[in-house]
Every structure is written in C-alpha cells, then in structure tokens.
Amino acid sequence: MHDEFKEKLIIQLAPTGMVPTKKDTPHVPITPKEIAADTYKAYRLGASVVHLHARGEDGRPTYKKEVYEEIFSRVREKCPDIVICASTSGRLYSDIDQRAEVLELGPEMASLTVGSLNFPSDISINSIETIKDLAIRMARRGIKPELEIFESGFINTAQYLAKKGYFKAPLHFNLLLGSLGSIPADLRDHVYLVESIPRGDTWSAAGIGRYQARINVAAILMGGHVRVGIEDSIYYDYTTRELATNERLVRRIARIAKELGREIATPADARKILGLNARH
Ligand code: ZN
C-alpha cells in the first residue's frame, strides 16, 4: 500500500483570480492591501504558497509589474517566507511581453498553462511557441513553473517539453477540474489525471466553483496538494449560496486535512517538496 499521507500537505491560496468582482462578492480582495491581508489570514492557517493576480484601480485584471510589485512587497511584509506564485495567464491579454512582465520581479514560481481551452466567457490561448517562450523566460530567472492542467493532453505537452529541455524535473502540476470547457470534476477524471503524472513529479488540485471542497479533499486523500480560494469559488456553500471568504475556505480545508491525519506543510516544507531553491 502507498502511504499517501507521508508527505505534508501544501495549501496554496488563490485569493483573487481574474474573474470575481466586488459586485459578485464583497469578499474578493482586489487592492494590494486587501490581497496581503487575506494572504496573511490564510498563512496563519497553514497556506504556504500564494497564487497572485493583480488588479488595477478600476478592479480589472492588469499585467503591470508595478501593481504586482506592490502586492509582492505587502505580502512579503506580512508573510516573509510564503512562496509567491505569480500568474502569467493569457486569458485577457495575449501579448507575451505583457504576460511575462511580472517575471521580471523574480517570483519563486509562476503559473504556466500548457494548452488552450474555452472558459465560459472567454478563451485561454497558449500555443506551443508561447509556452516555450514563457518557459525560457522562467528558466532564465530560476522561476519554477506551476503547470496548469485543464485536460490530460496538457500533461503530454508538459512531458514533451520537459524532454526537450524546457522544464526541469521534478515538474509541478496544478490540476484544474470542473470548469465548463475543462476536464469534469468527477472522481474518475481526477484519478485519471493523477495516474497520468510521472512518479517523482508533484501535483496539486483545484476544483472550480461548487467542486472546490470535494476536489481538495480527494487531493488530500490521494497524497497531492490543494489550491483553495475565491479565484476558483466565490461561494462557501453552493446550495445556500453563502458567500465565501478566503479565510473560511482555507480554514475548512486545513481542518479537514488535520482531521484526516494529513500534516500541513510550512513554507520551508513546501520549498523542499517542490524542489525550490530556498531564498529565505
Ligand atoms: Zn490564477
């Protein structure tokens, strides 16, 4: 029998994303100050990685590194050792220099979607050339890519590019299940993706919308890691439509992990698990 519980659990907070607005939920953190405050609350509950998107003063997503810079410095001030994973999403801007601007700030990790897909209201376009270009820019700065996986074919692409030298092992995958246009959030789909990941690589899982908690719990049970937060799910309870806060979402998953007997990783543990060069 495998011991799925021998590795500590990395809780990654995804507090903001590109989609939720204050109109959708007053709890989504938009300003650098709000994002840092939510990250701090999650950090105290056991979040060791934070996946960051920036928003402009109008609340809309922005790629500007000045905004990211303020977010990073506020986050680091409150959570000095948390692992920062910046988004390079091409969902709203396709220009590669814009998508890569945040990499100039040298976050430890950055997301990289290794394929294209439809979202309910827009399209994420990532050609092989774009993926290679972002991979090179990350490698040059020693930034570890978090490979965003929306379909099993994305895992093949990542493995092909690793073989060609674009990614260095061990790879880290984030599985996103349950969005319209991605792989569904059925348990069999989740298991299928996990079994497609080469041994020695690491993975976490995020369930979109109503699937957040159940995908997180399945990941805890299968020995993976979790991504949790308002980016993926604005409701705490989809039946009653009770709105979530990032703090409550993290508290729920940390509590369940502890009750199931899975220990929670500190940022130092997370760096070891992910093979990051300690900068702290
Ligand atoms: Zn994101």
Q: Which ions, cofactors or small ligands are bound in this entry?
A: zinc ion
CATH architecture: Alpha-Beta Barrel
Q: Any idea what the radius of gyration is? A: 17 Å
**CATH superfamily label:** Aldolase class I
Instruction: Estimate nothing, just give the exact number of structural domains.
Output: 1
Count of individual beta strands: 14
- What count of helical segments does DSSP give? 9
CATH class: Alpha Beta
Q: Kindly report how far apart the N and C termini lie.
A: 36 Å
| SSE sequence, one letter per element | EHEEEHEHEEEHEHEHEHEEEHH
Provide structural commentary:
- The model has no long low-confidence stretch (mean pLDDT 95).
- The strands form four sheets. An eight-stranded parallel beta barrel has the order 1-2-5-6-9-10-11-12, surrounded by eight helices. The chain has a two-stranded antiparallel sheet with strand order 3-4. Strands 7-8 form a two-stranded antiparallel ribbon.
- It has a single domain, classed as TIM Barrel.
- The chain starts with 10 loop residues before the first strand and ends in a 6-residue tail after the last helix.
- It has nine helices and 14 strands.
- With 280 residues, it is of the alpha/beta class.
- Zinc ion binds next to loops.
